[in-house]
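Bench notes, afternoon.
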Amino acid sequence: MKRFTRVVVAVVAAGSLLVGAAGVAGAAESSTSDQTVVQIAAANPDFSTLVSAVQAAGLAETLSGKGPFTVFAPTNEAFAKIPQAKLQSILADKALLTDILTYHVVPGAVKAKDLKKSQKVATVEGSKVVIKKSKKGATIDGAKIVKTDIVGSNGVIHVIDTVILPPSAK
């Protein structure tokens, strides 16, 4: 049951990642969307790899769930940094893929203004990520946060430029 709950939360969170689709480039987004993450994700080509990953993990049905979630959403360009053979291997391993997707999700709605200079935050996957904020911007486990505060009906999305991996996947 714990694993199922984690997967459900991961899927919803991964869906929330997709909420960022309404404009990947840029700084902060302050408007709130009344669309579900499923509707937003399906409409935005910048997250097609993430959508495929969510589908491969069998998590797509959960994407309309309630939150709130804070999702650090990698773009297609972020996924392109992974060598093709390794990406295909990850997509084929449902358990590993689920761990990676849930590692991008933090429970609750955390906006950029709530971030501290440096902090460790527990993810839905169970491990902690390191988030750092400076005058130059913010990072999560070394991935640059390129867009913040995309607010959807079930969470907050921060777009990142690199897929981050939990300790179990490194």
